[in-house]
Amino acid sequence: MRDPAGRAGLTGMAAVSALGRGPQAQLAGGLAGAAAFRPVRRFPVEHRRVRIAATLPDAGTLADELTGVVREAAAQAGLTTAERAETPLLLAVHGHPEAARWSDVDGPGPTAGQLAADLADRTGLGGAAGVYTCACVSASSAVADAAAMIRLGRTDRVVVAAGYLVEPDQFALFDAGRALAADGVVRPFSVDRRGLLLGDGVSAVVLERVDAVPAGREVLAEVVGWGRTGDAYHVCQPDPDGAGLARAITSALGRAGIEPDQLGYVNANATGTAFSDAAEAVALRRALGPALDRVPVSSTKSVHGHALEGSGLLELVLTVLALRSGKLPVNAGYLGQDPACPLDVIVAAPRSSASGYGLTLNSAFGGANTALLVGAA
Amino acid sequence: MTGTAAAALTVLAEANWPGPGEDTPAQLPGFVQSTFSPVVAEVANRCLAARHEAPPAPAAVADRTAIVLVSASGDLAGATQVAAAVDTDGRIGPLLFYQSVPNSVAGHVATRWGLGGPVVCRCPLGDPLADGMAQARLLIDDGAADEVLVVAVEQTRDGAEGTTHARAVLASEGERR
Lengths: 377, 177
Fold this sequence. Notes:
The complex is a heterodimer of chains A (377) and B (177). By secondary structure, chain A is an alpha/beta fold.
């Protein structure tokens, strides 16, 4: 086993969403504040109250899109066939897409584990090592575990993949739960925000121990800190006092030895939901204090929608891209400041980044919170 | 998980569902049409009560106790009913919205016992409890938690609300009290 305290570097990344295919399409959409919501054509929605989502028109199956992003990320990282064969896969998904309609009632049915094993096999990876099904913190939890595995010397390299493609069942549930924005716009932190909209998001990253990356290959960024907590407040609502998320943020910063005033950007979880966005604003103030006044904040869910189990990784990719470009994405849909969300929200045009450190936050039902801190190389 | 050659965690408490003579779990308010979440809540409560007697957990450990829920099936009864409603243009009750992910019942347990550590839900790649204990090991080694409640739960399609069995283990690095 390697010496502990390995640094987790990001050497390859790939993403598809309604913004398009590839990292550059994600960054371009984020910087333009170009919201990609459109009428749902993928399945019948005539019985739904809201009929809009951020969908990629030519999206294939979840398995095919996951295969594509894993291959692309591995190629960018320059992984050889042999290197891929010794690299484990961590996957974040809701479940196997066919499980709920499996006709063999006596059989076990397909599982997310099988999806992961098949993906590892198709992409030449060294097997699936973890499958995360914890809703909107699935992907970020996988990244935190990958970084921990590298830090602890358990592995030198991990591929993390995550995906959600807008489909009828979750769409129906979110609609029944009155969670979707009836005005067809996602307005994180804004006055008059009406809720979230779902979006496609399939991504993959290669994380490697920095001092084990072969010469000639580029480390794009580092995952320098991570934190995970629970609110212990409610089955599905966040703690309005923001204590749990604040602890996750503080943990991430502390792990990296970074002070709040060194932070250059926050990619917020904010979904455009009234109470959740407000709780996150409170958490940010609790954790960052007065320094928050000088940290630009945006939620890219305002352009690509909420990709559920895929959201954490898509947003990590966008955060890395933004920090590397020096331009921070716009929080689209913003009508004006909500007094409950007194933040420096990036509106109208991209902002220049003052530092190479960015925080990406995700929260989910059950009070689950994650904070990932990245440093641009 | 990769490279886990570390020593086994200490089991502080454990519980199973069903116990002798048990069939249907107690109804869990806010969770309907499936035995999945009621069984998770019941087995978690039994396990935590064996350690802490009554909720909430002591302040010294509460914020540092994680919940790891492992299931290959997930809430199969719930998912099947939603799929059937979607396919027949049937009504979907709003309560099914949040219970469609395992986080929600994990959040119920966390709220009842005041557990502020990470919430992780997984589909196992081998033995479910072993998968959960490996996750627990990683959380503890990484400093994210001191104690971990691991719940391994599986549901089959027997009956309209499914047949669910589960095992809960509260584990830590330290010695059993």
